[in-house]
């Protein structure tokens, strides 16, 4: 399992934001919305890293 809060904490800085949450629910915000397309490929990498580290 991937902790949603930890995942969002790692991804939010991509868009110049912050985020967090619980293991099953997280949210984030950011100001650099032009970078939102970078989140999908980076999320794949981050999830893979988290699954290997579990």
What attributes characterize this protein structure?
single chain, 54 residues, alpha+beta, two-stranded antiparallel sheet, 2 helices, 43% helix, 19% strand
Cα separation of the termini: 8 Å
| Rg for CA atoms | 11 Å
Tell me roughly what share of residues is in helical segments.
40-55%
Uncertain runs: none
Number of strands: 2
Mean pLDDT: 95
**DSSP strand (E) fraction?**
15-25%
Number of helices: 2
Major β-sheet annotation: 2 strands, antiparallel
How many individual domains?
Answer: 1
Shape: flat
Structural class: alpha+beta
What is the ordering of alpha helices and beta strands?
Answer: HEEH
Strand order of the largest sheet: 1-2
Give an overview in words.
This protein has 54 residues and is α+β, with helices and mostly antiparallel strands. The protein has one domain (4-53). It is 43% helix and 19% strand. It is built from two helices and two strands; from the N terminus they run H-E-E-H. It has helices at residues 4-11, 39-53; strands at residues 18-22, 25-29. Strands 1-2 form a two-stranded antiparallel sheet. The longest helix is centred in the C-terminal third of the chain and has 15 residues, at 39-53. The protein is flat, with a radius of gyration of 11 Å. The termini are close together. The relative contact order is 0.24. The model has no long low-confidence stretch (mean pLDDT 95).
């Amino acid at each position: 399992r991937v902790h949603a809060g930890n995942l969002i904490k790692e991804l939010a800085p991509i868009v110049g934001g912050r985020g967090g949450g619980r293991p099953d629910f997280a949210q984030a915000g950011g100001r650099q919305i032009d970078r939102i397309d970078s989140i999908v490929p980076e999320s794949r990498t981050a999830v893979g890293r988290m699954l290997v580290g579990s």
